[in-house]
Design brief:
- The complex is a heterodimer of chains A (about 325) and B (about 260).
- Chain A is of the alpha/beta class and about 325 residues long.
- Helices cover about 40% and strands about 25% of the residues of chain A.
- Chain A has two domains: about 220 residues, P-loop containing nucleotide triphosphate hydrolases (Rossmann fold, 3-Layer(aba) Sandwich), CATH 3.40.50; about 60 residues, Alpha-Beta Plaits, CATH 3.30.70.
- In chain A, the strands form three sheets. A six-stranded mixed beta sheet of chain A has the order 5-6-7-3-8-9, with helices on both faces. A four-stranded antiparallel beta sheet of chain A has the order 11-12-10-13.
- Chain A starts with a helix and ends in a 10-residue tail after the last helix.
- With about 260 residues, chain B is mainly alpha-helical.
- In chain B, about 75% of the residues lie in helices and about 0% in strands.
- Chain B is built from ten helices and no strands.
- Chain B is globular, with a radius of gyration of 18 Å.
- The model of chain B has no long low-confidence stretch (mean pLDDT about 85).
- The chains are: A alpha/beta (about 325), B mainly alpha (about 260).
- At the A-B interface, helix 3 and helix 4 of A face helix 1 and helix 4 of B.
Chain lengths: ~325, ~260
């Protein structure tokens, strides 16, 4: 039992959270192993942010069990906070203070001081490519740089568990890749456990395991590869003049059951080119465009929920 | 307890440094009361005779401790707005997930606000000789002490409000309905004598009345009669002390809710 607890960084069991009559989390269970990068993927309103707040010790659960680093946040919040790093979606830096002043302030809150604090702060800034920015005020930094300072701040007290809410919001793709690579290095070199929420596919793809949240429930939990294997082969998306009519036509003529999601018809097939040929030969006049490819985690989400991850976003 | 000193000091330090880096706040907190004092004090001086005070005490002089109280109130209001902003931008979320707890967080914030208030109230105190007030070093020390007590109470009250609010939108209503009337009905602006009974009662239950009274007593430490018809010093200090403690506790409670 003891060994099992020691290897688990975070654990929730039948976790529930109500806001009045609305149930934001309707019984979620999962375990995050030490040293794991664990992603929680879900659209807005899936309960992701509520779950993040509970994992960050800022919101009590209304049912179920939570253990962070083996401790109960309802009774031992302060002991957890000493060992927990949190990165919020909104910038938590003081724009009027310099980068180093922000870090120093945060370190003092954790009881760090003097040379040990300054040394740690400068080393972290160096590792994140921010050495030359230490004495600039945060208000002069770009969004991407501020995000990195935010990470440095959370890492300052050497947390064992790092919880991040949509960490790459507002970053350009290059900065995003750099950020994820840094998380990976933290895990490898310092054994930090990383728990992040995201609605970005590429971020989810880089996690060891991904939990998919929908309407307050965990609808899937696995490695990105295993999740994608649930989709039968390639994914074909057909943009039709009249999706409903084409759907009926495919059913009758080809014996296929395409899903209609956001006005697009979606089919899974082991070999997409064959299916595309089949569809084009039978319905050339009905089709505006066809695309196909290997399944993404979004396809998994669609398969599980019948909806897109981000409504109105690019397919 | 020792573990609290470093977090409280750093929170206090941030409030002070931030203030210094925002010019408009510095100007607003000093210039606004100064303008009030000169315009209102000058305008009303022809028609006003403070009761109970020796002849020759003009309205500018009567109004002077009241304006010091207003400086303290304004600073508390700025501290409140800053806290609402800190919560809105997410800065305080980062503080809440640190192992500090609401007692330490609120203490750091309240001491920060108090420091700023006393610094600005102290600047106003430099004007005393211009009014012909001969304040002794003992009197200056006593006034500064009272300022600390009043400012801590007002900042605590402001923080108790700020930790409950999610935007500065509703703050104007609170300022106009609670904070500003507290000052108006404190004897800062007009004395209690000769007022309708309900107003007199409102002044009697208003903690600020005792803050302003304590300021008058300590300003006129050498000539007690000049303080006029206000509550005596001892009870005034006791009321302000109790107010400061209660305001701090209310703010800790409000902050504690946000940290679950």
């Amino acid at each position: 039992m003891r060994a099992a607890t020691a290897s688990v960084a975070a654990e929730v069991e039948d976790l529930r959270r109500r806001y009045g009559a609305r149930e934001a989390l309707a019984g979620v269970s999962f375990r995050v192993a030490r040293g794991e990068i664990f992603g929680l993927l879900g659209p807005n309103g899936s309960g992701k942010t509520t779950l993040f707040k509970i994992l960050a010790t800022l919101l009590p659960a209304t049912g179920g069990r939570v253990r962070l680093l083996g401790l109960d946040p309802a009774r031992e919040a302060r002991a957890i906070r000493r060992r927990l790093g949190v990165v919020f979606q909104h910038p938590g830096l003081d724009p009027k203070l310099t980068v180093l002043e922000n870090l120093r302030h945060h370190g003092h809150l954790f009881g760090m001081r003097g040379r040990a604090l300054a040394g740690r702060a400068l080393a972290l800034l160096g590792g994140l490519g921010l050495d030359d920015r230490a004495h600039e005020r945060v208000e002069t930094l770009s969004g991407g740089l501020a995000r990195r300072v935010e990470l440095a701040k959370a890492l300052l007290p050497r947390p064992e568990l790092l919880v991040l809410d949509e960490p790459s919001t507002g970053l350009d793709p290059g900065a995003r890749r750099g950020f994820v690579a840094h998380l990976d290095r933290l895990r490898r070199e310092d054994g930090v456990t990383v728990l992040l929420t995201t609605h970005l596919l590429e971020e989810a793809e880089r996690c060891d395991r991904v939990g998919i949240l929908d309407q307050g429930r965990l609808v899937a939990l696995d490695t990105p590869g295993a999740l994608k294997e649930r989709v039968g082969g390639d994914v074909v998306v057909v943009h039709a003049r009249d999706p409903e009519a084409l759907r009926a036509g495919m059913r009758n003529k080809l014996g296929r059951e395409p899903a209609l999601v956001d006005g697009l018809l979606r089919l899974e097939h082991p070999r997409a080119p064959e299916l595309v040929r089949e569809v084009m030969e039978a319905f050339e006049d009905e089709v505006i465009a066809v695309s196909f490819g290997k399944p993404t985690i979004e396809d998994v989400f669609i398969r599980l929920t019948g909806r897109r991850l981000r409504e109105g976003g690019p397919a | 307890m020792m573990g609290l000193v470093l977090p409280v000091t750093t929170l206090w330090w941030r409030e002070v440094v931030r203030f210094g880096r925002q010019r408009s706040r510095v100007v607003g907190a000093v210039a606004q009361p100064l303008v009030f004092w000169l315009l209102l004090g000058g305008g009303l001086s022809a028609s006003f005779r403070p009761p109970g005070a020796p002849p020759g005490t003009g309205y500018l002089e009567y109004f002077y401790p009241g304006i010091i109280a207003l400086v303290l109130l304004f600073t508390a209001i700025f501290a409140t707005i800053a806290t609402v902003e800190d919560r809105r931008t997410g800065f305080l979320q980062g503080v809440l997930v640190a192992p500090v707890g609401p007692w330490g967080i609120v203490l750091g914030q309240a001491l920060g606000g108090t420091t700023l208030a006393v610094l600005q109230g102290g600047l106003f105190l430099l004007l005393a000789p211009a009014l012909g007030l001969a304040v002794s070093p003992a009197s200056v020390a006593a006034v500064l002490g009272v300022m600390v007590l009043v400012a801590f109470g007002l900042t605590g009250l402001g923080l108790a409000i700020a930790w409950r609010m999610d935007s500065t939108q509703g703050f104007h209503a609170i300022m106009n309905l609670i904070l500003f009337p507290m000052w108006l009905l404190s004897g800062a602006f007009f004395p209690a004598s000769g007022l309708p009974a309900w107003l007199e009662w409102a002044m009697r239950v208003n903690p600020m009345t005792y803050g302003v009274a304590a300021l008058r007593h300590t300003l006129y430490l050498e000539v007690p009669v000049a303080a006029g018809a206000v509550p005596p010093l001892g009870p005034s200090l006791a009321v302000m002390g109790a107010f400061a403690v209660l305001a701090y506790l209310a703010a800790v409670r409000a902050a504690g809710r946000k940290a679950s």
